[in-house]
Amino acid sequence: MLRLIPAPRRGIAARIAVRFATAESTGEASPGRSRAPPLCWVRLLGQWPVVDVIALAVGLAAGIVIGFLLAGVRATTKTAEAQARARVAEEKLQFVEGRLTERFEALSARALDVNNLRFLELAENRLATSRAEAAGDLDQRRQAVENLVSPLKETLAKVESQLRESESGARAARAELSQQMEFVRQSSEQLKTQTRALVRALQRPEARGRWGELQLRRVAEIAGMARFCDFDEQVSVTTTDGVVRPDMVVRLSGGKNIIVDAKVSLAAYLEAAEAEDPDLSGARLDAHARHLREHVDRLSAKAYWQAFSPAPEFMVLFIPGEAFLAPALERDPALLEYSMTKRVHIATPTTLITMLRTAHYAWQQAALTENARAVFDLGRELYERLGGLGRNIDGLGKALSRAVASYNRTVGSLESRVLVSARRMNDLGLVETPLDRPDMVEELPRLLAMPELVEELGEDEGITSPPLPRQNGKLAL
Asked: Do 234 and 243 contact (CB within 8 A), yes or no?
């Protein structure tokens, strides 16, 4: 610790001189006082001689200077001593701080070691406790885990088995798919070959005509019509203009006919399909549409419906594929309307099947009508036969009534005439067993009550009866 060294006391004269010099140098005085020297001093100085005053002033000045010098030397010495003591104290303080730091570090390390040891002991205790608890629950947990894993293991085994089966099935499917792809490839090659052969064959007019006729027959069969029953092919009829022979005559119910022609030119269309130049293809499609229009004119001029009367005043131009009609309609949009004005209906397989199915439905309705008429006739005949049966039953009932009446009369005669004499023989003792008495028949046959049977009986006996009831022109049975 540093000690405060008090400053040395100055002499009275020195203090007075310093105070006086300070007051003069600053020009300040105490509050409420003037800057002039105190009046007592002035009086005192006035009483002394001038030489003494000067000597006193010089002595005072010298004392002040010497006091200042001595005070400075002492202060310098004390300052040096204080600095030395301060350096020593600082060194001691640094030494003490170093020792304290070392001590604190040692204590901290010791406390840390102790804490580590205690923590390790606590961790070992806790670990031992946990191990004991875990060892106690290990079997139960192992069993629980096995219970949880066992279904999963079985499921995984099933999944693995299914995956193996799926893989084997996939391999078989891939092999089958490869075979099918090979079959498709071969079929495609065969189809290409057959298509080329068909194109070459269709380039001949007679082949195109035959193919159109086959397509027409196939469409009729798809529609449910039978050859020689619902339609005829290649029927020739002689008219004033010559012999006409359409490709098909479809019979309608009621004796009417629909004429179908399949002789259409497809040469221009095939040339357009084979052409690689777009301009050439368009020109051939224009020719194809023009050929169809010209064929419509030729069919309209022949008026097939007049040769096969009764027939609707139109005929059907069959085109064996929608692909042949669509380009013609693109090139000539008014072709359908023009053909209808000429009483020629252009039909593709789809539209012709619809038309023929309608005709087939008409045939079915006609057959149902014939069946209904046959059922009506059969019902009427059955009704009449029921009337005859009623007459026979009535005659049988009357005969039974007459037989009952005769029986009752015979029984009455037996009781009133025969049995009376027979009882006398019994009374005379000629016979031992009495005769049985026959019973009278009290029930009579039931008379017919149905009005239809009664009316039929009235007609047989000459009695007029109202007509049989009818509903919508049919007998109400």
From this structure: no
